[in-house]
């Protein structure tokens, strides 16, 4: 089991007073993140964008990592290539992988406006990047001689959209991907706005035979398909038809369910059981999360640790949001009441299938049955989520463990002293409670 961190939030360099120094700032945290149990960092886009104070989701020069004086300065908002390489090296030294944010749908910051001869429309599509790599004109964008209309996806924010069927574009995106994996040392990709282009493009970039440290390397890959369960499910099916089922998707349906759990009083917890999320239907393809840089005014406001407890005990690949961990102070190291304790529970105990033992409008109880092989020993756990605002709640459930003592290792909620130990009877039955508006994780002693 692994845990990633989204190692940025919107306007992070500005708010943390680390403009053009973000790579160095993240590097300072690497050793502590390793100790906390993080396995990977998802970094923001590394290339020079339309401005050197941009988050990077409006790419201009894919091959300028902060070393050319253009778009307002030399460095990106995060730093330069040397600082990025130093961060990657330090992360790898501490056993932490890196995922690159791939923005290959649209571009911005063009140097000239051009008239597209196919439709007579003027657009900002002339790019003369100072890196000297991947210069572009109208034929690299839609409409193009290679694709006169967009066949694969949606427009985004009025930006010019790359035509991936143009051999120049296709080739340069391979060059960019190879640079990220083979030269910089990234370990995977997060593809931005995958609604906007064909799943085949992600498939071929994912299945390229990268060579890293002298060996063939396959990156971990996740797509941002911001939609409902049916749309995401169809996209996962399609993109994995080009691969060996290696592509995951962020679980937006689950995230919106968890927001309701946290921010809507009396939300029915049975909604978590109906399979209307990626993790419930396709757990091996689920990248679960609580909040991210795009949520803006829709961030979860109340009792957010209830949501983190859920994603860290269930299947899927959980992502922790930097802003919650650091700026909101939810890490709470050396206590049983924060994200750090949940990460340890995830690594040490959350193995095997999830089995829902009880669900009613206010109480959810689940067990992970455990998993053991030559490399892994995760004994399993019992997880209780209590939606009531004014009282502890629990119920007797039948677990897989007869005559077993359980101890609480992670919990939080209102009026949440340490829960008592529990012992199952000869049939595996015991009552497992959790504090008001909170959770508790019990593990075999």
TrEMBL record:
Ca(2+) 1 binds at residue 105. Its EC number is 3.2.1.1. SMART domains: Aamy. One of its GO terms (biological process) is carbohydrate metabolic process. The keyword Amino-acid biosynthesis does not apply. GO terms for molecular function: alpha-amylase activity; calcium ion binding. Residues 2-346 form the Glycosyl hydrolase family 13 catalytic domain. Keywords: Calcium, Carbohydrate metabolism, Glycosidase, Hydrolase, Metal-binding. The active site is at 192 (nucleophile), 224 (proton donor). It comes from the Bacteria. This is Alpha-amylase. The keyword Transferase does not apply. InterPro entries: A-amylase_thermo, Alpha-amylase_C_pro, Alpha_amylase, GH, GH13_cat_dom, Glyco_hydro_b. Its cofactor is Ca(2+). Residues 412-431 are annotated as: Disordered. Ca(2+) 3 binds at residue 362. Belongs to the glycosyl hydrolase 13 family.
